[in-house]
Amino acid sequence: MIKSIIGLSLIVGSMFFVSCKSNEKAVDDRDTPTKGMINISVDESFKPAIVEQIRVHEASFPQTKINVSYTSEADCFRDLQSDSTRMIIVAKGLTEKEAEFYKSVLSYKPQYGVLAYDAVAVIVNKDAIDSIFSFKDIQDILSGKQIITAIMDGKSATSTVRYLKDSVLKKGEFGKNVVAANNSQEVIDIVAKRKDVIGFVGMSWIGDSYDPKQVAYLQKIRLSRIECTACLEKNVFAKPSQATITRGEYPLARPLYYILKENSAGLGTGFMNFMSLERGQLIFRRSFLAPAKMAFQKRSGSIKSE
Fold first, then answer.
1. Are 134 and 242 within one domain?
2. Which of 23, 41, 246, 283 has the fewest CB atoms within 10 Å around its CB?
3. Looking at residue 131, which CATH number applies to its domain?
């Protein structure tokens, strides 16, 4: 009888030990703002800026791993509906109807907000005849009224395609002269070789004057000046830059949003906070986007010598 009791106690004790270890492992596997692994999807037109954000974040928090898929905006939203994707970074937030849809699926509404402001850059070959366009010129090119081949940054619904349709054509249709490359890199390569085309890409692909690769691009292409539609002064034409986006002079500016599926503080929240606070905002600024959360301004100063 005593042996039976001892044996039963050992079995119960070992089951309790295994159960505790299992629960401990389950807790350890749960990601936190500074530890764990998540999957995110990012609109391909923002790739250069987000590559740098992830590089610095993972160097700062070595126990984190952010697996990223760079794809079209439409695919990002499809990924958001899957359990495996925690966050997407795109050029639009959620409508109230979309937020309610995700609430019905998840039992909570995803968080979303603006991190920075980007622009759709209009690029031409360095030997092209014209690199200055009115806003109506851009509308006429995209609608096919002006017969010049326009190259988009993807064959599916990218944020650039959606933005130009919604904000320039006012939901109109592209003309037959509008064609799609595979990605932003291919748009730049085509424009660098041909004088008879015009390209549309995210500014972070060609706006970094400290990136040797982007500096090399700018030896082969030119950034077009586009008519300012918000300026009181007439005949103001602006290139895309932090300054012209911030001042509202460049008319093809757009926001960069995060959309996050977390109802507790996990790695997605940690990465979102990183991009929203000083270091992340400085990375956006260094990528030549306009930070949305922090204003970085030059202040004059002097030191008095005694």
1. yes
2. 23
3. 3.40.190.10
Q: Model-level pTM? A: 0.83
Q: Is residue 9 part of a domain?
A: no
CA atoms of 130 and 124, how far apart (whole Å): 8
pLDDT along the chain (306 residues), means of 10: 50 50 55 96 95 97 97 93 93 92 88 96 95 96 95 85 93 93 93 96 86 86 95 92 93 96 94 97 93 68 48
What is the rounded distance in angstroms from the CA atom of residue 221 to the CA atom of residue 192?
6
Range of the structural domain that residue 166 is part of: 119-253
Q: Judge residue 204's burial from the number of C-beta atoms within 10 Å of its C-beta, 0-12 exposed, 13-18 middle, 19 or more buried.
A: buried
